[in-house]
Amino acid sequence: MRKFLIAGNWKMNLLRDSSVALVHGLLDELKGDPNVEVAVCPPSVYLHDVGAALRGSQIALGAQNMYPAEEGAFTGEVSGKMLVDLGCKYVILGHSERRTLMGETDAQVNAKIYAALKCELLPIVCIGETLEQREAGNTSKVVRDQLRGSLAGLTADQMSKVVLAYEPVWAIGTGKTASPAQAEEVHADIRLLLVELFGEATASKTVIQYGGSVKADNAMELLGQPNIDGALVGGASLKAELFLPICLAAQKVKK
Ligand code: PEP
After folding, report:
1. Following CA atoms 31, 2, 109, 187 in sequence, which dihedral angle do they give, to the nearest 10 degrees?
2. Chain mean position to CA 52
3. 241 vs 102, 129, 192, CA distance in Å?
4. Which one in 69, 105, 236, 247 has a CA-CA gap of 20 to 30 Å to 215?
5. Cα-flanking dihedrals φ and ψ of residue 134, to 5°?
6. What is the position in ligand 1's atom list of the atom closest to the CA of 11?
């Protein structure tokens, strides 16, 4: 059985004190569950403080991006090794904001996945269509192309360490959520592609999160879908009282 992964993507929000206070708010209330892993992904400058507050707890630390090279003259960038050094287990790669605002390509995401795996960081790879692409009937093609490009050349063993996050761009930060049926349709399609690319055993083990305006009131129904294995949460991860009910919903869902 796949374990749920509920990850909070804090993006460029919060300052040091509010980041640490949020972690304490989560740790005060969250009970461990063997079927649900929870992670938080603060801005890189607060990974150290958030990591210190999380130490010894059941909540994992993740970063929001990394540079593919191991070290060198890359001003302003952060390597995977540095993230591991700060205690990160996960790194979000290819988020739609990076693809749109920073022009990140599937080839760059692919290089980052290899670099992350090399230093034993687990990548959370984001894919998803825009509203225009959905309305043109191209959702499956767009998502499949992004996956083929981002996951190019990976072995089944490497893929077994990768998490996917299906995030329809039109649902991110907009308050619009894909309906459980819309999301499940894409998740099932992604799993079919994974069978083609990596075989049944790997496909059935791959965690595919949904992301896009996940909140307490829609989490349970989304997470109850057969191919939805967790959530990547933006806005609702910034307050303990919004994020905790999503984690609790995952703990309650029985599949
Ligand atoms: C995200 O940025 O990954 C995200 C899903 O954001 P939100 O939950 O705010 O839509």
Report:
1. -110
2. 22
3. 32, 30, 36
4. 105
5. -65, -45
6. 2
Q: Is 95 a catalytic residue?
A: yes
Composition of the chain by helix, strand, coil, percent to 5: 50, 15, 35
The residue from 129, 167, 184, 187 that is catalytic is 167
Give per-residue pLDDT as tens, 153-196: 999 999 999 999 999 999 999 988 899 999 999 999 999 999 99
Q: Ligand 1, closest atom to CA 97?
A: 2
**What DSSP letter does each residue of 168-185 carry, written as one string?**
-GGGTTSS----HHHHHH
Domains of the chain: 4-253 (3.20.20.70)
Amino acid at position 241, single letter: E
Cβ neighbours of residue 121 closer than 8 Å, sequence gap 6 or more: 63, 66, 80, 83, 84, 88, 89, 90, 91
Ligand 1 pocket at CB < 6 A: 9, 167, 172-173, 211-214, 232-236
The model's pLDDT over 100-144, given as tens digits with 9 standing for 90+, comes to: 999 999 999 999 999 999 999 999 999 999 999 999 999 999 999
Candidate from 9, 97, 126, 217 with most ligand 1 atoms within 8 A of CB, to mutate: 9
